[in-house]
Every structure is written in C-alpha cells, then in structure tokens.
Amino acid sequence: MPSYCYFEGQIIPLEDAKISVMTHALHYGTALFEGIRGNWNEAHQQVYIFRLQEHMERMKNGAKVLRINIPKTAAELGQITLEVTKRSGFKEDTYIRPLAYKSSKALGVRLHDLESEFLVFAIPWGRYLDTDACRVAVSTWRRPDDNVFPPSVKATGLYINNALTKTEAIENGFDEGIMLGPDGHVAEGSGENIFLIQNGKLITPAIYNSILNGITRDTVITLARQELGLEVVERPVDRYELYVADECFLTGTAAHLTPVCEIDRHPLGNGGVGPITAKLKDLYFEAIKGNLPKYAGWCTPVF
Ligand code: PMP
C-alpha cells in the first residue's frame, strides 16, 4: 500500500516528494520534527492518532525558537496530518512524521531570511525498542544545557547528540543510552524520558533538567496520579538513584512504555518487570488504543 505525503501544499505519493540537495535544512539541521503514533484497535477496526494537538503545539513552539514560519494553527496542522494518515489507509500501527524545515535553496549559517515548508507522512511501524527488558547504560554523551540548545525543541540538528548516544549504547551491547545533563543529573534516553520507582513513588527528571517535554511522559504522569493514585515527583535525579531504584522504565511515542531491567549491568528489583511498571504499562496501552472512555479526548479516530 503506498504512503502519502503532504508536501508543498498538496497530498502526493510519498515517493514523489523530493527536495533539492541545496535545501538549507539538509546542510545545517534547520528543521523540526515530531513523532506521532496512530494505534490500531482490532476490536474497533480503527486507528487512533494519539495526542495529535499536543504534538502540533510542541512543533509550533519549536518553530518560534528556530524562526520557522508555519502559517497554520496547530489544529490546522493536525487536520492535514489526519487527512494524510487517512489517505495512506494503514489498518495497523502507524508512525506519523511531520517535519517543518528551512526550505530555501541557500547556503549560509543562519535562521533568518529563509523560506519554510511543512510536510507530513505516515508509514506502518511497530515496535521501536524491541524488548520488554531493556538493558541501558549511562552515556558518555551529555544532554545540552538550555543555553547550548533547548532540549525541548525537537530540532533535527540536535539529534546528532541523541544518535551518538544510541550508537554508543548499541555498540557496547546495550539497548539504549541514558544521558546526564550538563550538571551531571540524569536527563533522558536518546529517544525516551526516564522514570524511576522508589518506595512506591514515581520519580522523573523535571522539565528544567535538560529533557524533552515528552507527551508520553505527561500521559504516564496523568495516568499514575489519576488512575493509580500514585505520588509523582519531578525533580533532579542523581545517577546513584538509578542503581538503587526498585523499578525503572522509559517513555516515548516510538518506545511506548518500555520496562528497564538493568542499568550499567546492575540488575533492578527482581530483574523482571516491576508491579507498578506493569500496571502503568497496561493502563498506557489501553489509553493509546482508545479503550479508556475517560481519555477519549487524547485519541483522534482516523477512519
Ligand atoms: N526524549 C527524547 C530525546 C525524545 O526524542 C523523545 C521522543 N520524542 C522523548 C523524550 C519522548 O517524547 P514523546 O513522549 O513526546 O514522544
């Protein structure tokens, strides 16, 4: 089945959407992306796009920082995304990739005096971290300070930092790397936020601890508080706390909620999926598949 792409104002087959080698974003990383999931619900015979509006709002905020002019509201971008996903027609788990980029065919390091474009396409995509027992290692690469580059801006150029982390982890035999922030506190994985559970409490680095303000992170915090009555603390997290945690898991649109069983070769808890992680994971999957009426507002049906 062909994928479609919204490109330069029209929906066309993905394979026909092509850019020039002179495109500014290709040379200087001057683009913003989002990762959005469409989750297949077999019983409903439906794909639900998860938290579409929030993803588009995050992109609009990033656009302010990179001075990418997208002359459309978050809701309008969401509508285009919905149309492209519907047109692609996948009746399975889908990954949606919007990109806002400096499209001028121009060289020169800058953000000003450049044209911008927005594109979006959808492809079938299942698991990202292909494990339920993730083995992670603290990375030698650090997440940048907000004054180096704001980590909550999903700029393509910044993802070289994430790619260095991921490849280091894989080449060293782990599934994912955990980056510390500039002050040495725990920040996040190369494509996921991190949560610890200690004495029944959920602990996660705060927004100002050099992390991406994850939408899955917010989802899990909401479900933990509202459905399980758990205390959630957002604060600086020491590296030490990783090793003594009862449970740990990663969250991200691509990674979903992935339990961590080992950090720097220290086994966590009893080595399996912890009880609170298991409950949160079940709730999370029910929410994203559109099975929790209370959270139906998070799910946009495609068909
Ligand atoms: N941190 C980083 C560095 C990421 O790339 C991602 C994936 N977007 C996340 C956290 C998780 O964010 P979200 O839950 O919004 O996908």
UniProtKB/TrEMBL annotation:
Which keywords annotate this record?
Answer: Amino-acid biosynthesis, Aminotransferase, Branched-chain amino acid biosynthesis, Pyridoxal phosphate, Transferase
Which CDD domains does this entry report, sorted A to Z?
Answer: BCAT_beta_family (cd01557)
Name the pathway it acts in: Amino-acid biosynthesis; L-isoleucine biosynthesis; L-isoleucine from 2-oxobutanoate: step 4/4; Amino-acid biosynthesis; L-valine biosynthesis; L-valine from pyruvate: step 4/4; Amino-acid biosynthesis; L-leucine biosynthesis; L-leucine from 3-methyl-2-oxobutanoate: step 4/4
On whether Ribosomal protein is a keyword of this UniProt record, the answer is no
Q: Which InterPro entries match?
A: Aminotrans_IV (IPR001544), Aminotrans_IV_CS (IPR018300), Aminotransferase-like (IPR036038), B_amino_transI (IPR005785), BCAT-like_C (IPR043132), BCAT-like_N (IPR043131), BCAT_family (IPR033939), Class-IV_PLP-Dep_Aminotrnsfr (IPR050571)
What's the Enzyme Commission number for this chain? 2.6.1.42
What are the names of the required cofactors? pyridoxal 5'-phosphate
To which protein family does this belong?
Belongs to the class-IV pyridoxal-phosphate-dependent aminotransferase family.
Sorted alphabetically, which NCBIfam families does this protein's record hold? ilvE_I, PRK06606.1
Quote the protein name from its UniProt record: Branched-chain-amino-acid aminotransferase
Taxonomic path: Bacteria, Bacillati, Chloroflexota, Dehalococcoidia, Dehalococcoidales
